[in-house]
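Per-residue structure
===
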Amino acid sequence: MQSLSKVTEYPSVDQCIGGVAEFDDTQPWIYTLDNPYLHGVYAPTTSELDVAGLEVEGELPADLGGAYFRNGPNPVFQPKNRYHPFDGDGMIHGVYFRDGVASYRNRYVDTLALQGEHRDGRSISPGVMGPFDYELSPFGIKDTSNTDVFFYDGDLMSLWYNAGHPYRVDAHKLNTRGYFDLKGRDQRRLSAHSKVDPATGELLFFDYGNEPPYMTYGVANARGEVQHEVAIDLPGPRLPHDIGVSRNYTILHDLPFFHDMDVLRKHGYRVLTFHRDIPTRFGIIPRHGAGSEVRWFECEPCYILHTSNCWEEGDWVIMDGCRSINPMPSAQPGEGELAHMLAYMRLEANNYRWCFNMRTGEVREGDIDDLNTEFNKTNPLYMGLKSRFAYHQRIPLHHEGGYTLRFTGLVKYDNDSGRRWQWDYGPGVFGSEAVFAPKLGATAESPEDDGYVITLVTDSNNWQSQCLVFDATDIEAGPVARVRLPHRVPYGFHATWARGEEIYAGG
């Protein structure tokens, strides 16, 4: 078998024999495993740092105040079974901006699963590639809390893609406080990409599982108190990843990319299939509506990881996001037992718009652009309001060298016209999900792109990491400031911006 590490231009296992390795700040066991999601830009770090007064190239804007947080996989122990990047223990990286100075901090999300592995001194949990074991975990696999993160009720909420237990993390010190319990809710499961409405402070959340009800939807107030939760009628288990939120409605996703429960029960493996003969359905429910009030709209078969924004125009509800019509690309020759995981992680998606008429039931949908992009974000102050701009990550396709998921450039879209502006990170430089940071004092009445776009990058030529700050009105000019980070930051999943008015409130 061809070395997977060589395929991705990372050092192979053979090259690391005898202690000659890529890094001295990672887990030594990674050099016994030939898995590209454990090497190079994906190699975990063992360092947890607190560094103030970071070196800045350029100048940090005076009206930039708040913090960029990014979650991602950072495995501590050698995996029990084959490793998938969803299996890595969550680690949150924070870059804080205040009074023209930047500081950095990173910490593991101290989940119950990770605590148990520390006690045993080894990995005891099966991973996403199975076999699932429901005696060890209520999810059948390890809840790593490595996927999403956002600021809510005075702290960070850390979430897992597979509807796990949310964790409460101190936004300043990044220490884990324990489970993030929503008052008035009997169980803790919550999906990644639940959303906080900046206008009301409400948390709009959803949950899903393998047993009825296959989905629930709810709303909690700004104090973490559940005000509303209802069961959503689905035909079977699904794996929705996101929702859309307008001022008056929430858009729930029933997508034709799901697993066979008989296979999971009999063999312990979750085998995903894209059912091209089943339409995608979107269920639009009033924000505090009953399950019986969901109105379903059928669209072309697809899978959706992330929405950008939703809003209402007269009788229409409009949702922008990224659509994939090939959520499970073909496995490539020579990739062995990891072939299906590698194929699944080769994300193929493009910028797309769906429009739903609440009076007539009409659906209109179509491409905004055909460039392969994802991990899309918008100005958070415009959530639920008409918006034009979205900020995506450019993802090379397999024939372009995209052997593993990697972000090679920042793309700004005008979703009304389809126009795009790009800035490439550079050869061998890989980015993170970018966030929009409104200027201090900005409101939803401020110009939509009058702020900054912030991301982390790691340069595989020298393994240095930086935080880049762009003027959102001129992405193509490149970053106005580069903040040098004190160590290598591994690849991660989702990021969020905590506004200075919130995170620094009270001092």
